[in-house]
Amino acid sequence: MRIRRFLVGLGVLITVVGLALLALFLLFDVNDYRAEVEAKASAVLGRRVSISGMMGLHPALQPSLVIERLHVANPPWASRQDFFHVERFEVHIALLPLLRGQVVIQEIGLDGLDLLLEQGPEGANNWTLGQKSGVLDGAKPQGGNVGQFPVIGQLVVRQSVVAFQAGPSETLHKVVVASATAQAPQHQPLQLSVDGTYRTVPMKLEFTGGTVEALMAPTQPWPLALSGQAEGATLDAKGNLTLAAPTTAVALDLSLSADEVSFANRVLEVNLPFLPSFEMTGQVLFSNGDLSVNAPGQVT
Asked: Is the four-CA dihedral 289, 292, 293, 296 of positive or negative sign?
């Protein structure tokens, strides 16, 4: 009988605590802490971070935080005000590990991301956060963890634009992303899938690499494989990435085939002569800034 009463009492206690936590979630308005969130994020990144939309906390077994219209500023020399902005940022965190003091991010969602990667004067770039080239309006990074890649279960990007420009007078390369998914479970291979458009050419890409842990602390070549399709063209590449100092290199065995080459004219902005179809195999090596291509395989 006492055991039964104890179990009943324990069940009531758990229910009461659960309802109390739920009430806290429902009553807590994260928007009241907007200024503190912006200041802390700005200090960590060394860039001004601002939120022009609403924020929300949603209780569940995977609690989520939603931020609308999130902006991260550019360095003063960049071509526009924002390094990136996103219409909706959503992060889901596993609850049970959180109760044990562990932060496990199940999924990050980005809707309406607009990201521009730029290179500037004297070797500066706008994607190196927390460094001199990226500090804006006195925002200084705190701590020594800037640049460490967090362990994230899944990253989902929808209806977004990612662009790159090597300098003010260089060509702007822009990819319109309909959807993209990256999965990087702890100690598991990195997987990436992208469905988008580059220079009006629809493309689909699939990428598989080694573990994120091995990439962030490279001691041996990191394996990678890539496959892509674009308007009758198919690309398959397999090789490895070497980041162990002093060598930075990418070595790939690749094969490329296409029904015709009109897509290449649009992608590369060239004027190749008409070819009904072709197949090509070979090797590509990019090492310490030098590119070499060897195509001993068949070209038909």
From this structure: negative
Residue 5 has phi, psi (to 5 degrees) of: -65, -40
Facing residues of 50 across strands?
A: 71
- Segment 19-65, tens digit of pLDDT: 444 454 555 677 887 888 888 888 888 889 999 999 887 776 677 88
Q: Tell me the one-letter amino acid at 140.
A: K
Tokens of 29: 């308005």
Specify the DSSP class assigned to residue 28: -
- The helix (run of H) or strand (run of E) holding residue 15 is helix 2-27
DSSP state of 274: P
User: How many whole angstroms separate alpha carbon 60 and alpha carbon 92?
Assistant: 9
Give the list of residues 6+ apart from residue 14 with CB closer than 8 angstroms, or none.
none
Nearest CA to 134 out of 51, 216, 72 is that of 72
* C-alpha distances in Å from residue 246, one per residue of 61, 114, 212: 46, 34, 20
Q: What is the pLDDT of residues 110-138, one digit of tens each?
A: 999 999 999 888 888 888 886 444 444 44
Q: Which residues of the chain have pLDDT under 70?
A: 1-28, 60-61, 98-102, 130-151, 245, 260-276, 295-300
